[in-house]
Amino acid sequence: MESHTLSAIENQTQEQSSPIPLLSRISSLIHWILLIANILGLIYYQVYSPNWGYSEIFRINGFTLLIWTTVLFFSSIVSSYSKNYLAGFRYQKRFSLLSIGFTLSVMLFVMSNHISALLISWFAMGFFMAKLIGVNKNWGEAREAEKFSLKYFMSGSLVLSVGILLLCYDSNQFTLNGLITTIEFGNSFLVISSLLIIVAAIIQSAIFPFHKWLLSAMTSPTPASALMHAGFVNGSGILLTLFAPLLILSNMLWILFIIGGITAILAQFQKLIQVNVKHKLACSTIAQMGFMIMQCGLGFFNAAVAHLILHGFYKAYLFLSSGEQVMQSSPKESPQLKITVIQAIAVGIFGVLGALLFTYLTGKTSISDSSIFLTLIVAITVGQATYNIVKEKSFTYIEKLGVSAVLFIVGISVYALLFNGITHLMSEMPMIQVPQSLDVLQIIFGIIFLIGFFIMKLGVHRKSPWLYVNLLNLSQPYKKTIHYYKK
C-alpha cells in the first residue's frame, strides 16, 4: 500500500476533468522543440565537428550535446506526462515554470566553461529542484521538505564554490579548461579542492551519509520525482567527469570507490525493507548512484555517464508508472532465494559469458587494473538476470536456456554499443577513462562488497533484528516531512 508520499498531493488537488493551462501546453511544446533541435545539432556536430563556444564563458562539445539530449528527453516526457496528470493541481503553472527553469539550469551547467557560470548554474539546479519538491505551498510537510533539501543543496554549492575558487586563486585561472591544463601534481590546494568537489558531488547524489534529503523529498508530485531521480541526482556524475583530471591528479579516486560501494550495499539493503513504493525507488536511486560513484572511483568516467543515462531511463519510467503499479498489485511476502545446484551453475556460466562478451566488445578488462571490477559488475548483473529467468516456472529448461542466452547477448551488445558511443562522444573530454592500478585496499574492499551483496541476496538481514532495525533507522526521512502537521 502506498502512503501519503505518492498520493496526498494528487488526490487532494487534482481534477482530471479540469482544463489544461496554456502555460503547461507551451512548456511541453518548448521541451520537445528543444529536444529535436538538439538531436539535429548533435548529428551536425558529429559530421562537421564545428568549434562552438562563446568567448571563454561557454563551450559546446560532444559531451555537452549528449547530456543536453538526455536531459531534454526526460524533461519532455515529464512535461507531457504532467500536462494531464497534474490537471486541476493548484500549482500546475508553477510546476511548469520550475521544470523549465531546472532544465535550462542543467543545460547551462553542462556548457559552462567559466567558473562563475558553472557555479551559478549549479546553485540554480539545487534551487529549482528544492522548489519542485515543495511546489505545493499549502502542504506543511512539503514546505519542510523544501527547506530541508535546500539546506543540503546550498551547502553543496558552498562547498563546491570554495573548492573551485581555491584552485582559481592559486592558479589565477577562472575557466574550467584553464584549471585542467595548468594545475600540476603537488599543487598546495589540489587535495583540499578535490575533497571539496567530491563532497559537493556526493551531497547532490544523496550518497551516504548525505542520503536523508532524498528520502525526505517524497512530498514532490510524481512528475517532479521522476525529473529529480532521472536528472538531478545524476548531476554529480557530470560534475566529477568535468573535474576528472584534477581528481586523478590528486589521487582521490579511492575515496569515491569506497564511499560509492558502501552506499550501494547499504541502500540495496534499505530498499528490501521498505513498504512504500516511493521510498523503495528512492533507496534504489541511492544504490544506483553508489554504483555510479564507484565507477568514477575506478577511473571509468565514461562508464559512469553511461550508467547515469541508463538509470535515468529506468527510473523515470518506474516513477511515472508507480501509481498504476500500486493500483494493480497486492501485498505479498518478499521472495526467498532458493536455487538448485544446476541453476547456480547456469547463473555462474551465463555471468562469466556475459562478462567475456562485454570484454570482447569494449576491450575493457585487465586483471592488473581497476577494469576488472567493471567486468565483475557486468557479470553480477547478467547473473542476476539469469537467476530471474531460471526461477520462472512457466518456462521449460530449453526455454530458460534460450531466453537467458538471447537476453545476455542482446543486452550486453546494446550496452557495449551505448558504452562505446558515449566514449566516442566524450572523446574531447580529458581523462574520461584512466584505469587505476590494483592495490590491496581495492582488493579487500572488493571482497567485502561481494560478501555484502550475497548476504543481501540470501536475506540474512531478515534474520538479524539488530541489522534490520539499524537499516530501518538509516532509511528514515526527516521527521517534519511525514505527518508532522496534523489537522
UniProtKB/TrEMBL annotation:
It is found in: Endomembrane system; Membrane. It is a multi-pass membrane protein. InterPro entries: ND/Mrp_TM, NU5C-like. Keywords: Membrane, Transmembrane, Transmembrane helix. The keyword GTP-binding does not apply. It comes from the Bacteria. Pfam families: Proton_antipo_M. Residues 112-327 form the NADH:quinone oxidoreductase/Mrp antiporter transmembrane domain. The keyword Endoplasmic reticulum does not apply. Signal peptide: none annotated. The chain crosses the membrane at residues 29-48, 60-82, 94-111, 148-169, 189-214, 226-246, 252-269, 308-327, 339-360, 372-390, 402-420, 440-460. This is Proton-conducting transporter membrane subunit. It comes from Psychroflexus salinarum. The lineage of its organism: Bacteria, Pseudomonadati, Bacteroidota, Flavobacteriia, Flavobacteriales.
